[in-house]
Amino acid sequence: MSQSALTITDNRTGMTYTVPIENGTIRATDLRQIKTGPEDFGLMTYDPAFMNTASCRSAITYIDGDKGILRYRGYPIEVLAEHCTFLEVAYLLLFGELPAAPELKNWVHDITHHTMLHETTKKFMEGFRYDAHPMAMFVSTVAALSSVYPEARQVHDPHIRLHQIQRLIGKVPSIAAMSYRHNVGFPYVYPDNDLSYAENFMNMLWKMVEPKYVAHPAIARALDVLFILHADHEQNCGTNAMRSVSSAQTDPYLSLASAASALAGPLHGGANEEVLKMLDEIGSKANVPAYIKKVKEGHIKLMGFGHRIYKNYDPRAKIIKWTAEQVFQVTGRNPKLDIALELERIALEDEYFIKRKLYPNVDFYSGIMYQAMGFRPEMFTVLFAIPRTAGWLAQWQELITDPEQKIARPRQIYTGHDVRQFVPIEKRTPVAISRE
Ligand code: SDX
To answer: How many angstroms separate the CA atoms of 193 and 195, rounded?
Structure first.
């Protein structure tokens, strides 16, 4: 009998089944043979929120949540953050290898020459209220690009796929910057192809009337590092949305808009904005104990803390903390850091957090740095979506080329009525319904 298998006895029938174990998993469809009779549909697994379900095979990102390990294509995040540029890491995520110098040069050229947006994009933007949330503008505009590039629907053509990948990575900073400029009522700034990816983003955000924008190198490098840290994170909520929507062979613009929509949630990428609101609400270090008390009573969550996978310190949070110090040397220290450090100090000593293995995640310190750079909290999740575009596209590429994948369509446990007799409206009586 194979050792790498489960032997299951169904106590309802006394039957036993052997189910192979592969890569630490069993195939859910192998359970369908377990029936009580020929009419029985067979067993399914029930796993709300996919707490213990692998949805795909992936070679892109590896996380060890207990040890706080994060690697892109086998390279530790710490090494990539120290030695690479974001576009170098985007190449690694998408193509599986770090580029040699000529490959990187060509890649940077291709992305740089896709930063321009179709002029019609301005009309999309003008349709938004002046105070529209930048994530709403980002998601809508990315989706609208589906109407500009209809050939993107040919998802099985590798050349067309690569062209959309280059367009999206090149254009998301331009869309983000347009959202910001729309919010503050400034004219849009066109890309400057002399600048690096991060410098050009800063140019499109902050150039005013000077003839040529010059980015502060420390701020540009800090942004590039933040882009590297946010680029991918295996099967998170946003990536699951990307894979689920694109499994229907939806074009990458509409699929990526769905991924960004998931990222916008306050439990996901929207947490960085919520952390700043939380720190503003706390107001000072002296108020931290009272706030922690409210968290422990279950009234509120400590935003920027906790993670489905990391049951140790998020390795990205450590790097962000270090990078923030570099930024503060240029911008001046953000006083909210002191409140955040006190929150972390108290939380990491408190049994409530220790028992639940709650540590700072990627969102805990990033917002403090973004704010010091001059970004408004509403922009923080857009800053997450820009680099995560590379990860979402790498995951999309992997899904489209995976022979095991097909349209995502989960099953359910039905809890509703059995068949009912129809009642014509003249015979119906009002029934109290819950509007919760
Ligand atoms: C990101 O998945 C990814 O990889 C995401 C991400 C990426 O790169 O894509 O890493 C980016 O989304 C980071 C997470 C950002 N979100 C936040 O900071 C929001 C605050 N965190 C929580 O909402 C929560 O920790 C989650 C959503 C991140 C994870 O939630 P889980 O895994 O579903 O855990 P849970 O809600 O079941 O919590 C387990 C226990 C519960 O207590 P009990 O019911 O057992 O008593 O821990 C408690 C929770 O109440 N808990 C928290 C808490 N997070 C969990 N209590 C207080 N504050 C928190 N932040």
So the answer is: 5
Verify whether ligand 1 is closer than 6 Å to residue 301 (CB atom). yes
Catalytic annotation on 233?
Answer: no
The 10s digit of each residue's pLDDT in 138-188 is: 999 999 999 999 999 999 999 999 999 999 999 999 999 999 999 999 999
Give 312-367 as a DSSP string: S--HHHHHHHHHHHHHHHHH---THHHHHHHHHHHHHHSHHHHHTT--B-HHHHHH
CB of residue 305 inside a 6 A radius of ligand 1: yes
What residue ranges do the domains of the chain occupy?
A: 67-269+376-400, 271-373
**3-state class (DSSP) for residue 261:** helix
- String of DSSP letters for 139-199: HHHHHHHHHH-GGGG-TT-HHHHHHHHHHHHHHHHHHHHHHHHHHHTPPP----TTS-HHH
| Catalytic residue (one of 114, 133, 233, 307) | 307
Q: In this structure, which topology does domain 271-373 adopt according to CATH?
A: Cytochrome p450-Terp; domain 2 (1.10.230)
Compute, in angstroms, the gap from residue 51 CA to the centroid of ligand 1.
12
**Fold (CATH) for 67-269+376-400:** Citrate Synthase; domain 1 (1.10.580)
User: Tokens for 89?
Assistant: 């890491």
In the numeric block, the tokens 């990526």 are attached to 256
Q: Is the pTM of this model over 0.90?
A: yes
- Give 334-364 pLDDT, tens digit per residue: 999 999 999 999 989 999 999 999 999 999 9
How many other C-beta atoms lie within 10 A of the C-beta of residue 53? 14
